[in-house]
Design brief:
With 279 residues, the protein is mainly beta. It has a single domain, classed as Jelly Rolls, CATH 2.60.120.200. The chain is built from 2 helices and 18 strands. The strands form 3 sheets. Strands 1, 3, 4, 6, 12, 13, 14 and 18 form an 8-stranded antiparallel sheet that branches. Strands 2-5-15-7-8-10-11 form a 7-stranded antiparallel sheet, with no helix packed on it. A 3-stranded mixed sheet has the order 9-16-17, with no helix packed on it. It starts with 7 loop residues before the first strand and ends with a strand.
Length: 279
């Protein structure tokens, strides 16, 4: 654990955001505290215009000085303006009749790889709760959809990932030619070290999301009910982030890749409490 931040407890009762947090709010987004909660809010957005409401504790730090390492426990009480998208849907909802949260959202720990928001060109590591809507399709685990509301671990900085790089590219090329994606899906899984579980918690209602990040596994619960145990999580250090944006990303075993932004109605993610404590 970082000596400068060995324990974190936020109830968001103060009228101002704690100075430990660096807010991001491009595209008319807002980050504010009200009614004992943190509100990350996007305005109605149009396709092609990037909007992101976010807090983090790693801005301006080198990766070696990110604050968090295992063993720790994070607990977040949160809800959102719209339900999570059903993972099997391919419906790209339009503003004015929006049924699901659009773009991506979540909270937890990651290494800030290169994204529309910035970062650095490196493979991703993450231990977090993550939501993505259509047309996002990041199929990292065979048999699971590449979108939806998930508990997720990604551990790409491993020797096994380096060894899997060339075979993954070969398998993806074969999938593009033959349509057989099963070998490519297995190699993508080896490359990313991903573990995931789909969540059925109603995203519009308050729930308590907890993760225990240890050196040999990460355990995720929702309202005390276990949803995922993931072996071999990243060792850190990672930074904390909570966000909602209008991005999408596509990276499939079939070799489809893409990024972009979506039109949406006004939407928000609210955090009622946040604790991070050593184990």
């Amino acid at each position: 654990m970082s000596r400068s931040m060995p324990y974190l407890a936020e109830s968001f009762d103060a009228p101002q955001l704690d100075p430990r947090w660096v807010p991001s709010r491009p595209g008319g987004a807002t980050v504010h505290v009200a009614d004992s909660a943190l509100w990350l809010t996007l305005p109605a957005t149009r396709r092609g215009a990037y909007s992101n409401a976010q807090i983090d504790d790693y801005a301006g730090l080198s990766a070696a000085h990110y604050p968090w390492r295992p063993p720790l426990r994070m607990s977040v009480s949160a809800r959102a303006s719209h339900p999570a998208c059903p993972p099997a849907t391919s419906d790209d909802d339009v503003p004015g009749g929006q049924r699901y949260l659009r773009g991506t959202a979540g909270f937890g720990f990651w290494n800030y790889p290169l994204t529309r928001a910035g970062g650095f060109p490196r493979l991703p590591d993450a231990v977090w709760f993550f939501h993505a809507s259509p047309p996002s399709d990041m199929a990292l685990v065979p048999g699971l959809p590449g979108r939806g509301w998930k508990a997720q671990v990604v551990h790409s900085h491993r020797a096994a990932s380096l060894l899997a790089g060339v075979p993954t590219l070969a398998a993806v090329a074969r999938a593009r030619l033959t349509g057989d994606i099963a070998p490519a899906a297995r190699w993508v899984h080896r490359l990313t070290g991903a573990r995931e579980a789909l969540l059925d918690a109603d995203l519009t209602a308050w729930h308590t999301y907890t993760l225990e990040w240890r050196s040999d596994h990460a355990r995720f619960t929702v309202d005390g009910q276990e949803v995922l145990i993931a072996p071999d999580p990243p060792p850190g250090p990672l930074g904390f982030v909570a966000w909602i944006d209008n991005q999408y990303a596509v990276a499939t075993p079939r070799g489809s890749f893409g990024f972009g932004t979506l039109a949406s109605d006004r939407e928000w993610l609210a955090l009622d409490s946040l604790t991070v404590e050593p184990l």
